[in-house]
Amino acid sequence: MDIVRRDSVPAYVTLDGSEIREWVAPGTPGRRQSLAEATVPAGGSTLAHFHRESEEIYLVTSGSGRMRLGDEERPISAGDCVVIPPGTVHRLWADPGAALVVVCSCVPPYSHEDTVLV
User: Fold this and answer.
1) What is the dihedral of CA 82, 100, 54, 90, to 10 degrees?
2) Mean pLDDT across 53-80
3) What b/e readout covers 50-76, taking b as 16+ CB neighbours within 10 angstroms?
4) 3-state secondary structure (DSSP) of residue 114
5) What CATH code would you report for 6-117?
6) From CA 90, how far away is CA 69, in angstroms rounded?
7) What residue spans define the domains of the chain?
8) Which residues neighbour 93 within 8 Å (Cβ) at sequence distance 6 or greater?
9) String of DSSP letters for 55-112
10) pTM attached to this predicted model
């Protein structure tokens, strides 16, 4: 049994500008998907982007902000879940005052090579 604690996972910055901690990624158990926590700093945003192959699911666990998915933009906050189909441009903004924290599931796993900045 593999158990991974958040504190043991190093953070890195993805191409979209968010800070990521990957609990599950290629090279770990669960090689056909990835599970990560993304943090957008208070008042910050990610870059608009899409993934050629990966479908993503975002579960907001802390904070609030806005999500753009294709041509639609809506407010999001802790408890909201969004499915992002492959090829769909998306972007996050965190409201001022608190970071926006999102757990992201990707199938196939996240990779820089699959990410296209818009």
Assistant:
1) 70
2) 98
3) bbeebbbebebeebbbebbbeeeeeeb
4) helix
5) 2.60.120.10
6) 5
7) 6-117
8) 40, 44, 45, 46, 65, 66, 67, 100
9) EEEEEEEE-EEEEEETTEEEEEETT-EEEE-TT--EEEEEPTTS-EEEEEEEESPP-G
10) 0.89
Contacts of 27 (CB under 8 A, 6+ apart): none
- pLDDT tens-digit readout, 2-49: 788 888 889 989 888 889 998 887 777 667 889 999 999 999 999 999
Residue 84 has which token pair? 């992002």
| Cα distances (Å, whole numbers) of residue 95 to 35, 73, 77, 84 | 24, 14, 10, 21
Distance CA 48, CA 88 (A): 10
Rg of the Cα atoms in the chain: 13
CA 81 to CA 69: how far, in whole Å? Answer: 12
Terminus-to-terminus CA distance in the chain, angstroms?
40
As given in the structure block, the two tokens for residue 59 are: 């579960």
Closest CA to 41 of 63, 74, 72: 63
